[in-house]
Amino acid sequence: MKVVALAGGVGGAKLAHGLSLVLSPQDLTVVVNTGDDFQHLGLHISPDLDTVMYTLAGLAHPETGWGLAGESWNFLEALERLGGDTWFRLGDRDLATHIERSHRLWGGATLTQVTGALCAALEVGPRILPMTDDVVQTRVQTSEGELDFQEYFVRRQCRPRVTGFRFAGMESATATGQVLEALASAELVVLCPSNPFVSLDPILSLPGIREQLTPKPVIGVSPIIGGRAIKGPAAKMLAELGLEVSSLAVAQHYRLLLRGFVMDTVDEALSPEIRGMGLRVLVTNTVMKTTADRARLAGEVLKFGISG
Amino acid sequence: MKVVALAGGVGGAKLAHGLSLVLSPQDLTVVVNTGDDFQHLGLHISPDLDTVMYTLAGLAHPETGWGLAGESWNFLEALERLGGDTWFRLGDRDLATHIERSHRLWGGATLTQVTGALCAALEVGPRILPMTDDVVQTRVQTSEGELDFQEYFVRRQCRPRVTGFRFAGMESATATGQVLEALASAELVVLCPSNPFVSLDPILSLPGIREQLTPKPVIGVSPIIGGRAIKGPAAKMLAELGLEVSSLAVAQHYRLLLRGFVMDTVDEALSPEIRGMGLRVLVTNTVMKTTADRARLAGEVLKFGISG
Questions:
Q1: Pairing of strands B218-221, B188-191
Q2: Which residues of A touch B108 (CB under 8 A)?
Q3: Model ipTM?
Q4: Cβ-Cβ contacts under 8 Å, A97 against chain B
């Protein structure tokens, strides 16, 4: 069964990892948000691509979810001494990814090509595709004005109150041919438990993506569990936008795209309302603490997806 | 006494360090070769500037002379895993210098400005000036064709037989205003014990430099001791060019610029011939093993320089 997973950062990477454990490599494609990509110290940084790549390679930091396990920070310490920008934390090993990626991009390779080469070197089996080879930049509109995503997310630690979002460059961006082909041949599409606003909406906003999704069975997995996000600002954003902080709000957000919705057992009471929106619902344990959790949830999502 | 030292890599950096120990910071300017500069992984690397800067900051690796003491290599290990170019060894801490320099250059700063900022951050007192803000690239002409300097020096470990040198870009390069002003107000100029062909000749070949040197007391310090170079390919180059491998050949090379020449006691027998070239000669111990050696030799060179 050909499956395409759409993913952003840590939560999405965990389910994508689970899917990679239960599917043959050639049957899984992970399409990753690049709206968080930015230039830092002149280098091209792709935080979500790295999180997904490191997680599928088994190299991700087990606690933070981003960056590499066993990382060292000697570069950053030296950079600080030189008076350089250290607000975005680049580990010594992680830096190799940013430099190699930037070097290849400067040489004329596309982000899709570079991602393929890096994944091959790290022996990642499933295909990881950036959503686009164009520049799309997520801007967070806040009570303090519009901020670059990493400025909001890392430097300001999500403190400013969110009023909306804008994807700069989206008007002239296109999904890559590889992404559109993967979706065209997909038998199931999984929206991973990533932030709806800043991880999956950039992918879903690309011209051509929704048209590919409409005829497919699309299953969404809620990143909100018991009114909270496992990680990241999804819950805070929902609240600041005046929406209910629950998996119900997530289901409503994706409503027009979904066939089915996966939510946690702690939210079971909300399931009738979601079914009332015309969606099939799977209620299960969606917290992924261990690798086994990831594989189990992935298996359940696949079974649920094909059963409809 | 205002002193300008011309220097390339490790040997030159040692004497420059010695001079920094015996002169007030405002009285010493070190003009450094940038013919070895190159682009690697898309970054701007200035090996000689770094060697001089690290040495004067007291941060240089005590054995290799290049790179930083207590360096770690996690970046390089990760880069190797990604299939990146690892023939030029970039340490984790050293990388901060290359990235910060490159980032500032891309932002429009000159190499002179960047060098000033990095030296200020590392609390280097004397002024370190790149010889030019233009691109000059030393090419080594060999039996295997013309090679980029780092290709010859690092990748091929100086193995190809040398037939000559070319400084690409020299025809349109200029010494910086800062370099020309430092030389104009210099009371003494010291040619550090650096490679004559690939460290000092690029500096001396820049338009305007020789004119500034002609009226000044210029003292050369031999990098050849007992027919060998302490470090680097100077002796091998002399031999391959069909020249005598001795401090005499070095004195002859600089002859038209020099007032005085400093050579090691092991070469004392050559001193009459050098005096016969019309040069004053100081014969002393020129091997700099310890910091005290550097300061002592620097003091002797200064005393010798002003006594003429």
A1: parallel
A2: none
A3: 0.93
A4: 78, 82
